Amino acid sequence: MELFKMAKEAMAMKSKINEMDKKLKSHILEVEHKAIKIKVNAKNEFLELNIPDDLLKKNKTEIEKLLLSAFCEAGKKAQVVMAEEAKKITGGMKIPGL
Q: What are the backbone dihedrals phi and psi of residue 53, each rounded to the nearest 5 degrees, phi first?
């Protein structure tokens, strides 16, 4: 009977994870970093990028650094939201991949 209980709990956890996945995909974050605007969902999927025309007049190296910083900031914000959602369904328990 213990095996049946574990399987039932695993199915319930899978359902919760699927629900969390949908919630993360629909949670859109808008990040602005030095005039660069990025939209990313909480699954860390980048959806939109807006670079102002005046920024494109700068040199290539400077643009690359600004873009990298903007993407890093957006990614960190998405990870925070993802971690908060994962904590809700796991009760704070660390599960690899979540």
A: -55, -40
- In the predicted model, residues of the chain with pLDDT beneath 50 are none
pTM of this structure: 0.76
* Nearby residues of 44 by Cβ (< 8 Å), 6 or more positions away: 75, 78, 79, 82
Distance, CA of 8 to CA of 13 (rounded, Å): 9
* DSSP collapsed to 3 states, 55-78: HHHCCHHHHHHHHHHHHHHHHHHH
What DSSP element (H or E) covers 93? none
Please name each of the domains of the chain with its CATH number.
18-90 (3.30.1310.10)
